Amino acid sequence: MPGRVAEPTPRDLRRREQAGSDVRMIWRRISQVAQAVLVFVLLGYLIWRGAAAMDYGWQWYRVEPFFYRVIDGELIWGPLVRGLIQTLKLAAIAGVIAILIGFVTAFARLSQSVSGRIIATCYLEAIRNTPLLVQLFLFYFVLAPIFGIDRFWSGILCLAFFEGSFAAEIIRGGIQGVARGQYEGADAIGLGVVDKYRFIIIPQSLPLILPPLTGLLISLIKHSAIVSVIAVSELTTAGLNLIADTFMAFEVWFLVAGLYLAVTLTLSICVSLFERSLNKSKR
């Protein structure tokens, strides 16, 4: 009826509806977690049945020396821990170099220099359109003897150049995602190119760059396993050596996968916390 104002919903009724909605949401979460647990239990059962069909004898009681041993009161790290340390060292150095390559390439592509854009484009196309394994062999068998590089640094440089090509596009996209008005504002107050990017553009592009860059660093850690083909003593190589010595393939690969998973999840959580602190500081 025209001119009639609807009466508001009573407060008690709104509270009951809100409580009912909360209960439904909790039950939905519980059912989703239960489904995930059921899938994992089923997967574990299938693996256990498969191993039983192969008459495989699990030997988890032998895995402790893979991590550490105590001899005469002295702690000695096992091959998996030493391999993990080498993997972290390799990934950290390659990650820093990859980000530097990414920034240089991104700015070259955004610059007005024709030669810079041509070099950056050729680098991106060459790296992204050839297999990582072929690039590793080129670095190790061709470039390493020419420049006198050992296998460890051959692996680092190969991974850095490979991931640097993807980092370049992530960084370029983040810089281009900053609003045009920010560039014009920086120019209006008389900032130079370096100060404009240092104080205005880069800080605002970080929230856009960090999430995909985290994924790239996680990929770098996983891709580091490929250097095992040139016998760099990292985590996968340590696992292969242990399997050759003990024939415990199932246990060793579960342990190696678990260590990679622990490292990548820790990295994801740390970057998420850093990203959250950045967003809080912007408010």
TrEMBL record:
Residues 84-271 form the ABC transmembrane type-1 domain. The keyword Membrane applies. It holds the Pfam family BPD_transp_1. GO terms for cellular component: ATP-binding cassette (ABC) transporter complex. GO terms for molecular function: transmembrane transporter activity. Keywords: Amino-acid transport, Cell membrane, Membrane, Transmembrane, Transmembrane helix, Transport. It is found in: Cell inner membrane; Cell membrane. Gene3D superfamilies: MetI-like. Signal peptide: none annotated. InterPro entries: AA_ABC_transptr_permease_3TM, ArtM/GltK/GlnP/TcyL/YhdX-like, MetI-like, MetI-like_sf. It is a multi-pass membrane protein. Its main location: membrane. GO terms for biological process: amino acid transport. Belongs to the binding-protein-dependent transport system permease family. HisMQ subfamily. Part of the binding-protein-dependent transport system for glutamine; probably responsible for the translocation of the substrate across the membrane. This is Amino acid ABC transporter permease.
